[in-house]
Amino acid sequence: MHMRLVVQRVESAEVVIVETGKIVGKIGKGLFVLVGIGENDSEKDAEVLADKLSKLRIMSDSNDKMNLSVKDLNAQVLVVSQFTLYADTSGGNRPSFIKAAFPEAAEKLYNRFVEKLKSLQVKVETGSFGDYMKISIELDGPVTIIL
């Protein structure tokens, strides 16, 4: 499995398309998730990671311990595609992204990941695939997990 997720626990998060100023995704308490899709990733990878994310126990319980999932709290998830998670700087200082999936394939798997989360009864908001976005987040913890 090569798909990459950067998961951050947030108090709130919002995504705005720069060109239009339109808010496309906005959540309260929950998880902000950057999704990087590699050239060899499959629908199975997307489904397995969505399932894992839905059960990931990084939300605080009443004793402030990480014991709960977003599903346990009925919290929200904001998912944004992020091809730069596949940056390779081993050849110098300018990143190469040749290991990232082509946009058409990446968008298909990104959409599959979102659909799978929704089928697992997770409340999902999204960014706008391929658009230049501004993202505002208020981290909680901070708690950041890389899957």
From TrEMBL:
<dbReference type="Pfam" id="PF02580">
    <property type="entry name" value="Tyr_Deacylase"/>
</dbReference>
<dbReference type="GO" id="GO:0043908">
    <property type="term" value="F:Ser(Gly)-tRNA(Ala) hydrolase activity"/>
</dbReference>
<dbReference type="InterPro" id="IPR023509">
    <property type="entry name" value="DTD-like_sf"/>
</dbReference>
<keyword id="KW-0378">Hydrolase</keyword>
<keyword id="KW-0820">tRNA-binding</keyword>
<dbReference type="GO" id="GO:0106026">
    <property type="term" value="F:Gly-tRNA(Ala) deacylase activity"/>
</dbReference>
<keyword id="KW-0694">RNA-binding</keyword>
<dbReference type="GO" id="GO:0005737">
    <property type="term" value="C:cytoplasm"/>
</dbReference>
<comment type="similarity">
    <text>Belongs to the DTD family.</text>
</comment>
<dbReference type="GO" id="GO:0019478">
    <property type="term" value="P:D-amino acid catabolic process"/>
</dbReference>
<comment type="subunit">
    <text>Homodimer.</text>
</comment>
<keyword id="KW-0963">Cytoplasm</keyword>
<protein>
    <recommendedName>
        <fullName>D-aminoacyl-tRNA deacylase</fullName>
        <ecNumber>3.1.1.96</ecNumber>
        <ecNumber>3.1.1.-</ecNumber>
    </recommendedName>
</protein>
<dbReference type="GO" id="GO:0000049">
    <property type="term" value="F:tRNA binding"/>
</dbReference>
<dbReference type="InterPro" id="IPR003732">
    <property type="entry name" value="Daa-tRNA_deacyls_DTD"/>
</dbReference>
<feature type="short sequence motif" description="Gly-cisPro motif, important for rejection of L-amino acids">
    <location>
        <begin position="141"/>
        <end position="142"/>
    </location>
</feature>
<dbReference type="GO" id="GO:0051500">
    <property type="term" value="F:D-tyrosyl-tRNA(Tyr) deacylase activity"/>
</dbReference>
<comment type="function">
    <text>An aminoacyl-tRNA editing enzyme that deacylates mischarged D-aminoacyl-tRNAs. Also deacylates mischarged glycyl-tRNA(Ala), protecting cells against glycine mischarging by AlaRS. Acts via tRNA-based rather than protein-based catalysis; rejects L-amino acids rather than detecting D-amino acids in the active site. By recycling D-aminoacyl-tRNA to D-amino acids and free tRNA molecules, this enzyme counteracts the toxicity associated with the formation of D-aminoacyl-tRNA entities in vivo and helps enforce protein L-homochirality.</text>
</comment>
